[in-house]
Amino acid sequence: MSKANDPQGRLIVVGVISGAHGVRGDVRVKSFTEDADALFDYGALLSKSGEPLVEAKAVRPAKDHFIVTPKQPRQKEEWDTLKGALLHVPRSQLPAPEDDEFYIEDLVGLSAVDRAHAPAGSVKAVHDFGAGDLLEILPAATGEPSYYVPFTLEDVPEVSFERGEVVIADAQKWADRSGRPEDETGA
After folding, report:
1. Does 97 score more than 90 pLDDT?
2. pTM, entire model
């Protein structure tokens, strides 16, 4: 696996800046981690480019977020400008998953194959638009648009990190754009 596909080097979203808290340089941060308090166990929280955005000096819980006194305070206006900025940590800082578990983000970069292990593409991203996880598959044929496959046991019956692949039960069904309205396919 190339360095670009190395899940340990990837930045993982763990929270978001919710804006300034008061005028003394504090910031509101919402955690996306399973254990909300664990967000601050990872050290500096980074921007999508890897630059430190928030490193907590002190943290106190609020209703659905935390109020953070950062080591490097910013003006209220700066924090308000950063409202909505996603906070990341390197994948390597996350605890190792149990033997029969994995981080959903680790699927990105794996090859997508059909049941006969013929190439169907690669996992470009994993999305959740509210109805469950979807794998975005970049087809093996260049120039073809990506397509989505529900990440269910029925549609993705096997994930093998040893082989670096996910098995798509019926890749052709999900990749087939015939019969769809033109405005959905972008054609």
Report:
1. no
2. 0.69
